[in-house]
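Lay summary

Proteins are chains of building blocks that fold into shapes. Our project writes down both the chain and a compact code for its shape. Here are two examples, one after the other.
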Amino acid sequence: MNIAKPAALLVAATALLAGSTVAATATTAAAPDGTRVTALQRTADQVLAGHSKPLKVSADQVRYDGLTLTAAPKGKAAAKDLDCAYGHLCMIVKGTKFDFYKCQTWTVNNWTGNGPFTNNQTPGTVAKFFNQDGSVRWTSTAYQAGTATWDPIWSLRPC
């Protein structure tokens, strides 16, 4: 018996009763191997192609070793300083919040547009954002917050 459809209906009904937008972020589709894939997971797969698979996936969060992706806040809150824990580098790209907390080079794809960022790492820590050829496009020294242009960022190193 396939319980995926009744379970999805239960999640949607619960979200409606609670007045939440969980139903929108819980949209799933079947992958070729039959597993369920959230919209957030599809975004993660697109922009982090080449990185190992996530450690944990739920409807509203994808967690890698050193990175957490969540749906970005909406409205004016997204335009102000981005909520970002101490020691982390956070940004919003195409409606997804990226929260980096591991010092390594991250290759990214399909980063376009503008979005807020917060470099809340230890004071003086420099995050570097790279062009396709590996040259530095721009840097951010902690603490710094603002709006960035992601066109074209091909990789980044939070520290």
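And here is the second example, written the same way.
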Amino acid sequence: MAGVALAGLACAGVVLAPAAGAAPSSGAAPAASASAASHAVPAAAAVTTGAKTPAVAYNNACGSGYGVVNSAPIGTAGTVYLTYSSKTKKNCVVTVRSRPGAAVHMTASIGVGTHTRDVVDSGDYTTYAGPVYLYAPGQCVSWRGEIAGAVAGKNQTNCAALAR
């Protein structure tokens, strides 16, 4: 599986924290993300790891051929996943809630270098935000997810030449 082989190539990252008093970004988001939506989750279920923080299973929202290469828990609200396809040479980010329910503000974003706002899906969702894709083979990417104000992600990770 490509995701397993690529996981060892991840660079150390820094967990992002929400800025004090941060306001929603004025960056453009896809038009489809502006309304409350229910993304159907294929076989996603909450799982418990050895740690006390619950993890959410990756829901394969990025599509066939994408494997998880990095992730970050968003408190107990959910998990943001960075995936990669060696076939398309694209990164993909999806933010998945631990417990789907009423629509809340969610974001999935990714960028090259330290920019996490290059490609963004932001809106009110019941289950997950994203997927968002970025072609950046061999470049460091920064990515993040947000669920109802809680934010997590990593800066400049997966820097190795995944597929130049």
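What can we say about the second shape? Residues 2-7 form the longest helix (6 residues).
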